[in-house]
Amino acid sequence: MNTVTTETTTNKVQFLADTLAGLQAEPKRMHSKYFYDEVGDHIFQQIMDMEEYYLTDAEMDILSHQTEELANVISAQESPFDLIELGAGDATKSIHLLQELLDKKLEFYYFPIDISDHVISYLEETLPEKLPNLQMKGLNGDYFEMLKRATEISDRRKVVLFMGANIGNMNVAEAADFCKALKELLSNGDILIIGFDLKKNPQQILSAYNDSQGITRSFNLNLLQRINRELDGDFQLENFEHYANYDPETGACKSYLISLKDQHVNIGDSQTIHFKENEYIFMEISQKYSLQDIDELAQSAGFKPVQNFFDENQYFVDAVWKV
Ligand code: AVI
């Protein structure tokens, strides 16, 4: 029987605090985790369906064609385990792996973790229909808080999935700290499967974040609209422009919103933010990696690289690391 429980941690106070801290900072910045409200989830779905956004198809190619090999790595140790997915999204990719693990009659419990409560509700509604034998519990909130929660729920060995190039939304130093902190929560023999978008033709990368239909533009602007909706802001969206760039030397793809004029924006009754003409808000990083960068990251965090799974174009890698 499925155990289905939603754990919702809506944190408007934190959203307001982070928004004000980011907009009062010099230079201005936002945290891309706030992109994912109901509208943002929908726009992100459109991004994943875009021709230019090659990442989704690339990782889907790995998950749909190499599930057996992935399942073999996971089941090399026979004991029951918890499969914990950080940033599960709609699980369209991981469902292939879940199906394979169920077909192999392995004993496991699935904990999808996502910052979006809509995503967790959707998974709890749809996964039990698609995978009737799956034992699962959705956890809504920040990765680490929820991962800690999952480690408190059981002491089974852990297999952590962190796919979709979500690690790319941290800069290199943050990614190193993240991997170290993750390793601290895991024990000997636990496994991490982590997805990286690889460095490649710079134009191809830039097009994925500066698409011809302006979907990524809407994705970024939606965060301003979310501030208007939830924090009583008065951003005029037409006064901001999306700008993306990719630096092939560092592998950093960054997106910004540029203020098109000198303007003031109110947030709630008591906060006013001043924007100079051409001032930018740093919105998001999507860091790209070489294979050497990836192995160095594993080693610096204390993981042992076990195996790399590539898509047929070698655009993307799902790396398997062990504690
Ligand atoms: C979720 N994350 C891996 C996406 C990325 O590619 O950085 C988010 C995204 N932002 C714009 N397009 C996609």
TrEMBL record:
Annotated ranges, domain Histidine-specific methyltransferase SAM-dependent: 17-322
EC number(s) given by UniProt: 2.1.1.44
Pfam families, per database record: Methyltransf_33
GO term, biological process aspect, one: methylation
InterPro entries: EgtD, EgtD_Methyltrsf_superfamily, MeTrfase_dom, MeTrfase_EgtD-like, SAM-dependent_MTases_sf
Single GO term (MF): L-histidine N(alpha)-methyltransferase activity
Keywords from the UniProt entry: Methyltransferase, Transferase
Recorded superkingdom: Bacteria
The protein's name in its UniProt record: L-histidine N(Alpha)-methyltransferase
